[in-house]
Amino acid sequence: MTGPAEVRCMLMRGGTSKGAYFLAEDLPADPAARDDLLLRVMGSPDPRQIDGLGGAHPLTSKVAVVSVPDDPEADVDYLFLQVAVDRPEVTDRQNCGNILAGVGPFAVERGLVAAGDGETSVRIRMRNTGELAVATFPTPGGHVDYTGDAEISGVPGTAAPVVIEFPPAASPLLPTGNVLDTVAGTAVTCVDNGMPTVLIAAGDLGVTGYEEPRDLEEDLALADRLHEIRLAAGKLMGLGDVETATVPKLSLLAPPRGGGAVTTRTFIPVRCHTSIGVLGAAGVAAGLRLPGSVAEGIARLPEHGDRVRIEHPTGFLEVDTSVDPGSEGSPPAVRRTAVVRTARKIFDGTVFPRAAALPAQPQGGNDGSAPR
Questions:
Q1: SS3 for 151?
Q2: Which whole-number Å values give the CA distances from 124 to 75, 104, 139, 286, in the listed order?
Q3: Which of 145, 197, 220, 236 is deepest in the core (most CB within 10 A)?
Q4: What is the predicted pLDDT for the residue at 365?
Q5: pLDDT at 326
Q6: Integer Cα distance of 128 and 361 in angstroms
Q7: Rounded Cα distance, 146 and 41, in Å
Q8: Among its keywords, does the record have Isomerase (predicted)?
Q9: Is residue 254 a contact partner of residue 202, using CB atoms and an 8 Å limit?
Q10: pLDDT at position 219, please?
Q11: What Å distances lie between residue 28 and 11, 21, 22, 38, 65, CA to CA?
């Protein structure tokens, strides 16, 4: 496949992820051609992504495609694409709440949304799921200001806060219809608060839940067990065969050690997250508030208020979550979810993708003779 020799691009940190942000009009309209171009932009497949923008990790090999919506309820459309690091794969089967944090500022920077004097709220349609989010961030004098005193774990320094609110989703909070399921011989709680997520007590898998991500990744027995659980849970959640999918995520739960509500180790789906995704944390926070879930006896919920602190390997993420526990004939449902993230523009300019591979040449002549 061929594509443009250069592409307008903005590299941004969104939350604890980093990605390349594009206007849809600057990319090929054909999804196959677009994905081929993005693989070459990011430097995949290559474990180091040495010939592209990618940072050799799923958290730094992400793409946001932003466009003008045809939905009057949204200001912009946002398509998230996960670019695999070591294989030629681009998938749109999940959202990313961290990269979402940069979408509003990017939309203002590109002129898709007019900035207010003081702060701006951007209604974002997440095309991966069709759900809405509203991002609010400072725009003094009508310009995006990335500086501020908001601090999030996993990111050095401080930046301007980006408050992201997620209206209640139309999809059920409990995709299986149950607060507790047994999957591959293990008790789990399957939730979907913007991201299909499977909650598991770490102790049920023979780990503490406090291990370093690398140590968990190198535990081959654990990897096999998680793989088995994920495949079975995917079918139970109505996702079908998830062998090559990036969802559902698996989040191991352990009692908190830093004053939060729970400690987490989240798999995305094979690598262990060095922090936790925004939507994954939203799922965990909702699951903690469900009586009878796997979190019961593990989590320590605050006595007052909706805010819960989700601990992860590099700190914590705070989520405001209100859940209606439901009643007979009425399933549990999320009333409100909101998080505070930050974002920063790293560069704005032109990226030059790796050259497209030439089609394979025939090895012999038309008469079947050996090549000269």
A1: coil
A2: 6, 8, 17, 22
A3: 197
A4: 47
A5: 85
A6: 38
A7: 25
A8: yes
A9: yes
A10: 97
A11: 19, 14, 11, 10, 11
